[in-house]
Amino acid sequence: MKRISKKRKEVLSKVDLAKTYPLSEACDLVKVISTTKFDASVDIAVRLGVDPRKANQMVRGTVALPHGTGKDMRVLVLCTPDKEDEAKAAGADFVGLDDYIAKIKDGWTAVDVIITMPSVMGKVGALGRILGPRGLMPNPKTGTVTPDVGKAVQEVKAGKIDFKVDKYGIVHSAVGKVSFDGSKLKENANELIQTLLRLKPSAAKGTYIKSIAISSTMSAGIQIDTKSVTA
Questions:
Q1: How many Cβ atoms from other residues are within 10 Å of residue 1's Cβ?
Q2: CATH number for the domain running over 16-69+161-230
Q3: Using 50, 70 and 90 to split pLDDT, how confident is the model at 110?
Q4: How far apart are CA 195 and CA 97, in angstroms?
Q5: What SS3 class is residue 74?
Q6: Comparing C-alpha atoms, which of 63, 62, 98 is closest to residue 80?
Q7: Cα-flanking dihedrals φ and ψ of residue 165, to 5°?
Q8: Buried b / exposed e across 168-196, counting CB within 10 Å, b at 16+?
Q9: Where are the domains of the chain?
Q10: In angstroms, what CA-CA distances link 207 with 34, 107, 111?
Q11: Which of 24, 77, 187, 201 has the largest count of CB atoms under 10 Å?
């Protein structure tokens, strides 16, 4: 018989992993069962009733989390010289064009978000094979290809994130840190869920939100009662 670790026993004494909880309760519980010694991230996974292989059922978008993710987002702005001061003033960590394109071609990708301008996409597009698999390729649909680079940087720094359903029909996203109050985690998670509901493809039939789970880094997942957020 497989032994249950001490930490696992402790978790099972505090939460029923087979039960579904209201969103507010789940957000409080995920803080309780986190056992890491660092400020762990809190993530949410929403399984959707869509077929991502079909273009008319792709779910992708952006959401501004009310309380941010708790992570200091490293932003690179690839822009023309006349926009560099604007990007720096908005809080961009790295600003430039040809020099950073060369660095990326050499393998540098130590950023969380890349923002660029429509006028330089001809140069940035050549980085698709490197940036695409890492989820860093700028895209007009997520607001990362825009002439207003300063505003885009401010939004990312304030908590704007982008999401995309994976091939299994699941949207994964960070919604905060364990150090956040449960109410803040709830508001962030609910904002993402409500955004997903608004983006429901007309071609999606049957149950749209199939399941929702919330977890922290290295913790067990807590199932959320979908009726508590879709009513």
A1: 3
A2: 3.30.190.20
A3: very high
A4: 33
A5: coil
A6: 98
A7: -65, 135
A8: ebebebbbbbbebebebbbbbbbbbbebb
A9: 16-69+161-230, 75-158
A10: 31, 42, 37
A11: 77
Q: What SS3 string covers 133-147? A: HHCCCCCHHHCCECC
CA nearest neighbour of 153 among 138, 132, 171, 164: 138
pTM, two decimals, is 0.79
Task: Give residue-wise pLDDT tens across range 117-173.
Answer: 999 999 999 999 999 999 899 999 889 999 999 999 999 998 898 899 999 999 999
Q: pLDDT per residue over 40-78, tens digit each?
A: 999 999 999 999 999 999 998 889 999 998 988 999 999
pLDDT higher than 80, residue 6: no
Q: Which CATH number fits domain 75-158: 3.40.50.720, 2.40.50.140, 6.20.20.10, 3.40.50.790?
A: 3.40.50.790
Question: Could you tell me what percent of the chain has a pLDDT over 90?
Answer: 76
DSSP 3-state of 56: helix
3-state helix, strand, coil in the chain (%, to 5): 40, 20, 40
